[in-house]
Amino acid sequence: MRVIGAGWTDIGLQRHVNEDSFAVVQEGKEVERQGACYVVCDGLGGAQAGEVASRTAVETFVAAWSSRELSAEDTRQRLRLAVHEANAVVYRLSLSLEELAGMGTTLVAFVPHAERAYVCNVGDSRCYRLRGSVLTQLTEDHTMAADMVRQGLLDPAYAGQVSERNILTRAVGTAARVEVDVVSDELRAGDRYLLCSDGLWGTVSESDLKAGLTAGSPEETVHRLVDLANTCGGPDNCTAIVVDVQERGGVAD
């Protein structure tokens, strides 16, 4: 199998700063050594702090993932170590300047390895898989509303309507340590993965999200999805990465 992806981010129609950041790393010596990686972060914090947190987390995660020093053989452990390094750097930075105090960021990352996809996340940026006509959310949100749903205290149909949907229970950089979820998935030719901030999934309905994913190259699709969020009012920054799985030697649409 081979994967090919593209990403895009937009400030939206109602924000003055884009606090989202992303990276698509699929070429170069680092990829040959450690493998490709794709990551989306959605920052939080006053003034410019969210922007600083998300950018710092993306840069640190990619550097850690690509480093020769990250020698853990297990892909799950390598992902956790890369997120822990990002958490440590953002947290230290938040303590260094008053204007950065309390900043943090979500993080969702996708890496292919040995015919499997590995996905890690902290916060409520998501990873979906489109397989045939079925769209599946692979990550779990770390919000108060999602916790209430998992505990049976809130009907999933109302989870998007309560104020707790915006309260994160985990974020990168807000504490000295962070818990990281990691899941794996079999790579199949024809699958399409989506990584996105809540500016996309929280604005666009799931049916429209699936429809927006069903045609075009990854580059065409990320622009279409971000444009769709803006058509729906663009209330937040919006970031999307689309990754296609192909038979080795396959050609992108």
Q: Can you say what the CATH homologous superfamily is?
A: PPM-type phosphatase domain
Corresponding CATH architecture = 4-Layer Sandwich
What is the share of helical residues? 25-40%
Main sheet summary: 6 strands, antiparallel
Number of helices: 7
Mean pLDDT: 91
The dominant shape is globular
Number of domains: 1
The fraction of residues in strands falls at 25-35%
Question: What does it look like?
Answer:
The structure is a single chain. It is built from seven helices and eleven strands. It has helices at about 30-35, 50-65, 75-95, 145-150, 200, 205-215, 220-230; strands spanning about 1-10, 20-25, 35-45, 105, 105-115, 115-120, 125-130, 135, 180-185, 190-195, 240-245. Strands 2, 3, 4, 5, 6 and 9 form a six-stranded antiparallel beta sheet that branches. The chain has a five-stranded antiparallel beta sheet with strand order 1-11-10-7-8. The relative contact order is 0.21.
Set down the secondary structure blueprint.
Blueprint: E1 2-10, E2 20-25, H1 29-34, E3 37-44, H2 49-66, H3 75-96, E4 104-105, E5 107-113, E6 116-122, E7 126-131, E8 134-137, H4 144-150, E9 181-186, E10 192-196, H5 198-201, H6 206-213, H7 218-231, E11 238-246
Helix pairs in contact: 2-3
Keywords:
253 residues, Phosphatase 2c, domain 1, five-stranded antiparallel beta sheet, 7 helices
Can I get a quick summary?
By secondary structure, the chain is α+β, with helices and mostly antiparallel strands. It has seven helices and eleven strands.
